[in-house]
Amino acid sequence: MQEPRDKMNDEPLFSIITICYNAAHTIGRTIDSVACQSFTDYEHIIVDGASTDATLEIVGAGAGADRRRVQSEPDDGLYDAMNKGIGLARGKYLIFLNAGDKFHRDDTLGLVARTITDNEMPGIVYGQTHLVDDEGRFLAGRHLSAPDNLCLADFARGMLVCHQAFVALRRIAPLYNLKYRFSADYDWCIQCLMHSRRNVNTGEVLIDYLSEGVTTANRRKSLIERFRIMSFYYGFWPTAFRHLGFIFRFMSHKKRMKNAHI
After folding, report:
1. How far apart are CA 219 and CA 22, in angstroms?
2. I need a labelling partner for 222 at 20 to 30 A (CA). Which of 39, 41, 157, 198 fits?
């Protein structure tokens, strides 16, 4: 559905940004997933935090290496690295695909591209997410399901669309707010929704998400930050009342994930 780009200086449709640090055991599946996409109008930006393992050797090898741009230097955390990725991006749309995460299928990027062209360049294109383990095996669907028609008010109920399955038009995307250490992606998505004129659901699973990440490992701190963000955008008391339901939802998800390992 496209002509291949001959010049790397051309503006691609997608900037796929991968953040990593000492990710030799997971980065391979991510770069392979990108390299295998049938749609090729993209650039793949790797922002590495000065890894000391074999991460950079893996990134520099294999299929698709000519489409990867790599920056490796110390950073001030995950969201600082993401801001660096945005600063390097030339694409019309941003996709964040971190080490260990994968596109669900080899034609996922093509599906997103068709959704964009069929809907006259919407501000946000999104889809569903599967959770996978460290070996890439399916665990469960995400406990929050992307709504059919996403709007700003929906995120008052939590991050209904996984960050990796939330494809944003670059010109409406802000930098991440670095005062949040664990939930700046939630704040970022809300800000994108505030500036998007139209949000379109692909109706498909887009991402296989590695379930153990920075936010998962810091669950309590992440939830506190999310409460602060929700209160800022949607009001303190409405947020407090909603959290009564969130507690039940979280416990149900925890039970479901435990059963998935049995």
Report:
1. 22
2. 198
Q: Are 49 and 21 in contact (CB under 8 A)?
A: yes
φ, ψ for residue 225, nearest 5 deg: -65, -40
Residue holding tokens 């009564």?
Answer: 244
| Token pair recorded at residue 15 | 């900037």
Distance CA 230, CA 190 (A): 10
Q: Which one, of 53, 48, 260, 240, lies nearest residue 143 by Cα?
A: 260
Supply 152's token pair.
Answer: 């700003």
Task: Report the chain's C-alpha Rg in angstroms.
Answer: 18
**Which residues, listed in sequence order, are joined to residue 199 by a DSSP beta bridge?**
124
- pLDDT, tens only, 110-130: 999 999 999 999 999 999 999
Residue 179, classed as helix, strand or coil, is coil
Q: Determine the average pLDDT of the residues in 35-40.
A: 96
Verdict on whether the full-model pTM lies above 0.85: yes
